[in-house]
Amino acid sequence: MSSGNYWKGAPLSMLYGSESPWDNPGFPPVQPGHNHAVLYHIPSNGVLADDRPPKPQVGQDKWDQHHVRLPCSKHSLYPVTDDKGETRLRKRWAIIVDTLKKPIRNSHELADAILAYNTKFKNRWKFRALHKLFNECLEEEESQSFFDVTLPEIVKLVLDLPKLIQAPIPLLKQHKNMSISLSQQQISSLLANAFFCTFPRRNSMKPDSEYSSYPFINFNTLYETSGSDDVIEKLKCICHYFRRVYTEVPCGVVTYSRRSVPPRALPRWRDSTKSLALPLHLNPVDTIEDADGLIQVDFANKYLGGGVLGHGCVQEEIRFVICPELMASMLFTELLRPNEAVMIIGGERYSRYAGYGHTFEWAGPWAERAPRDCSARRRQALLAIDALLYDCARHEFRKEAITRELNKAWVGFSFYTSENTEGMEYPGVATGNWGCGAFGGSAHLKSLLQLMACAQAQRPMAYYTFRDNKLADDIHAIYTQLVNYNVTVGQLYQILLDFCEEGLPPSRLHRYIVQQLTGVAATPTATPSATPT
Ligand code: AR6
User: Fold this and answer.
1) I need a labelling partner for 444 at 20 to 30 A (CA). Which of 120, 210, 241, 319 fits?
2) 489-502 vs 509-518: helix crossing angle, rounded to 10
3) Is 401 helix (H, G, I), strand (E, B) or coil?
4) What's the pLDDT score for residue 393?
5) Whose CA is nearest to atom 30 of ligand 1?
6) What's the pLDDT tens digit per position in 286-323?
C-alpha cells in the first residue's frame, strides 16, 4: 500500500489488528466437514507442500441437482447423428476428447472445436470477439504463439479434468452456509473447461432452465459479444492467466464460502446501541484491490461475476478478470438473496490493468504479493455483496431499501466475526462507492450505510472514493460530527428514516443529519465540507 498524506482519518495500520497487513491470525483454516467440501487431499499433518499442488480428494461421481454437472461425468450424454441420419447417445466427454486431440491452428478451428460438442448452437454462435482478438487485434506472431504454445496447454488442462477433480463439487445453493475449497490447479482445469465451453446444461437462456438461477460459466457469452475494446482486453487477461498457470503451476488453494443469515437473526437496526466511532480510513487515491490484508469488497451482481462473461467492465468484472480464479465461483454459486454474501479467500491476482470501463486495458503481469495462510491460501479475501439497482434516486431513500442494503452489508462484513465480542474484529473492510456506479446509488448514503454495517459488525473500515477528494472530505466531516455527538447505529438509522419521511432531495442528506444533531439549521457556510452538492 502506498503511503503519503493524501488519505484522511485512521492510518491503515489501525485496520489490520497487527503491525503489518499480514500479522493478524487471518481466517479460520480449511477444515473439511458437512458444510465444507474440500476437493483436494489434506495430508495427515494438515500441511500442504508449498512446491507442488495438492492431490485430488477421491469421491463418487454425482449427477444430480445438488452438484455441478461435470462434462467428464459418465452420465453426461450427448445425441450424435451419424452419416445414415441415425441418432444415438454418446458420452459427451469422449466427443470432447476426440475433438481436442486434433490440432487447432486458428480461431476458426477453435470455434469449430467448441461447436463439435455444442452442435445446437452451430448457426447461432458466431465467436465474433474471439475472431477479432486473434485476427485483428494481436500481432500475427502473438496469435501464432497462442495457437502453437498456449492453446495446447489449455487443452491439456481441459483433458486433465477427470484426473484433477475426482470428488463431486456441491452447488452453493440459496439459504445454505457452505464452503468449497479447491486447489488452484483444479480451478485452472475448471476454467480451461469454461474456456472451451464444455459445461453441460449451462448455455440455455430459458428462464425455467435448470441453471437459470446460476451465472453463465461457459465463455461463449464473452466470445459472442461484438468484441469491443474492453472485451478484447478482458480476453487478454484470461489468456495471460492461462499462460501463467501452465508455466508456473500454482500450488495453493482457494475457499469459496456462502453465508446466509435467516431474517430473525438480522440486526434490529433501530435498537442498535453500537457506536459509530470505529477506525475509518478515507482514501481518494488507491483502489480496493490495493488494500493488502483487508476484506476487499466486490461490488457484485446477485449473479456473481455480473457481466464478466459479457459486456460489463466495471469494478466486479475487472476484479474477476485480473483474478480469474474468482470466476470459478460462477460455476457453483446460485444467485444471492438479500440476506446472503459470498467470501472468497485465496484468489490470486495475475494481471495489472489500466483504465476503467471502455478504456480498460490489460497492462501486463502482476506478481502477487500476499503471503499464504496456514491452509496455503493467498491472504486475499474478497467479499461479494450485491447492492440494489436504482433507476430513480428517490427509490433508494425508502425504509425498505435502506434496511435491505444495511442487512446485505452487515451479512458480508460480519462474515467470520466472533459472537458477542466487545472489541474490534480484524481485519477491517476495504470498500467504496458500493452500488453507486452501474447501480445508480448515492455515495453519500451508501458510505453511511456501510459505516453503520461496519460498526454493527465491529470491523474498522477503509473507504476508497475512487479519485473523488470532495467525497472523502464529505465523509470525513459527517463521520467527525457523528462521533462528536456519540451517535449510535440505531440513532443514525432513525435519522435516515426521518430524512426519507420528509422527502427532502437526496443532496441534502448530510446537511439534514448535521441539523438533527445540532438541533439548529446548519447553513452550508457553517458546515461546508458536510454539504454534498
Ligand atoms: N476501487 C475503489 N472504487 C472503485 C473501484 C475500485 N477498484 N472500481 C470502481 N470503483 P460499480 P455498482 C468505484 O459500478 O454500482 C457490475 O456489472 C467507482 O466510483 O462497479 O455496485 C456488477 O456485476 C464506481 O463508480 O458498482 C453489478 O452488476 C463505483 O465504485 C454492477 O456492476 C461503483 O462501481 C454493480 O454496480
Assistant:
1) 319
2) 120
3) helix
4) 84
5) 433
6) 999 999 999 999 999 999 999 999 999 999 999 999 99
**Reported confidence tier of residue 520, pLDDT bands at 50, 70, 90:** low
Using alpha carbons, select from 156, 306, 301 the residue that is nearest to residue 221.
306
* Contact residues for 229 (Cβ-Cβ < 8 A; gap 6+): 358, 360
Task: Note the ipTM here.
Answer: 1.00
User: Where would I find the H helices in 323-468?
Assistant: 329-332, 393-396, 399-413, 443-457
Task: Say how far residue 390 (Cα) sits from the centre of its chain.
Answer: 21
pLDDT of residue 83: 86
Residue percentage of the chain with pLDDT more than 70: 96
Distance 79 CA to ligand 1 centre (A): 43
313 lines ligand 1 (CB under 6 A): no
Rounded CA gap, 189 and 243, in Å?
A: 13
Q: Are strands 178-183 and 461-464 parallel, antiparallel or unpaired?
A: unpaired
State the amino acid at position 313 in one-letter form. C
Instruction: Give the other-Cβ count within 10 Å of 8's Cβ.
Output: 20
Mean pLDDT of 221-225: 96
494-506 b/e with 16+ CB inside 10 Å = b? ebbbebbeeeeeb
The residue behind cell 506478481 is 367
The C-alpha cell at 79 is 445425441
For residues 125 and 100, what is the distance between their CA atoms, to the nearest angstrom? 19
Average pLDDT, the chain: 95
For ligand 1, atom 33: residue with the closest CA:
437
DSSP code string of 366-433: ----PPB-TTS-BS-EEEEEE----SSHHHHSSHHHHHHHHHHHHHHHTTTPPTT--S--SS-EEEES
**With a 6 A CB cut-off, is 433 part of the ligand 1 pocket?**
yes
The pLDDT, as a whole number, for residue 519 is 86
